[in-house]
Amino acid sequence: MNDELARLERYYDTVPRAAATVETIGPFTLFVAAVGLPYYARPRLGGFSRFAESDVSAVRARQRALGVPESFEWVEDITPDLAPVLEEVGLVVHRHPLLVLRQPSWPADPKGIRVRMAGSDDAALPGLRATLDLGFAHGGTARGDIGANERDAAINPDDPGLASWRTRTGQGLLALAVAEDRTGPVGGGLHVPRDGVTELAGIATLPAYRRRGIAAAVTAQLVADALERGVEICFLSAESEEVARIYGRIGFERVGTSCTAEPG
Predict the structure, then answer these.
(1) What average pLDDT does the segment 92-119 reach?
(2) Largest CA distance in the chain
(3) pLDDT of the residue at 49
(4) What domains are defined for the chain?
């Protein structure tokens, strides 16, 4: 394992601990979110080269008992022997390009769109959260019909995840970027800085606004914010090879493969 991947592995173990309870089950660490999106199980920090089906079954039984998804995440380059075991017990493994920023480029904001960082008390946050939810619910890069009206209908000011956003942003544990036009948020994303490393995540655009360079502009804004904070390693996991090529134009290069697994 090279030093860069080792730092990413420590990062993956550190970040969930700010918003989750943690349990050790055999060779796995199970993170259980207190609020917001659920977490997952990961190989324990320090490395295990062998995994048994009974180890996986123990984690899944605990996840079912807690009422959380039977979900696993890991980096294949660090833990190459895990995927076959998970597939053997019937879980579906998804592989994603793992990218690290090398030489950033700075695309201009698309016409009619303003991209900026959002603070913890920003009025745009409810709309931004609805935008990202809709963007991922209707994944991919193709344009669609979901736009501002659907965003406004999806806004939930009482969403507990929104309160978590505000708290963590105020503590410096989360950074949010919003892309907006005259109607409000139409795209956005976040990064999560810890100890000189940050992951860019949640980057999404309303389907009606796709193919305009908004995701690239949001990514560049997040990168600029991370560099201003003194971050040394910016990384992300791309949804697909097609999406990875978009990030490549901003200066990201592939360093490995991140994996997720859950029941089919």
Answers:
(1) 95
(2) 55
(3) 66
(4) 3-97 (3.40.630.30), 114-248 (3.40.630.30)
Residue 1 amino acid letter: M
β-partners of residue 199 are 192, 235
The 3-state secondary structure of the chain reads CCHHHHHHHHHHHHHHHHCEEEEEECCEEEEEECCCCCCCEEECCCCCCCCCHHHHHHHHHHHHHHCCCCCEEEECCCCCCHHHHHHHCCEEEEEEEEEEECCCCCCCCCCCCEEEEECCCCCCHHHHHHHHHHHHHCCCCCCCCCCHHHHHHHCCCCCHHHHHHHHHHHCCCCEEEEEEECCEEEEEEEEEEECCEEEEEEEEECHHHCCCCHHHHHHHHHHHHHHHCCCCEEEEECCCHHHHHHHHCCCEEEEEEEEEEEEC
Kindly state the average pLDDT of the residues 41-60.
90
**pLDDT at position 93 over 80:** yes
Band (pLDDT 50/70/90 cuts) for residue 79 is very high
d(CA 33, CA 55): 21
Confidence band for 108, pLDDT divided at 50, 70 and 90: confident
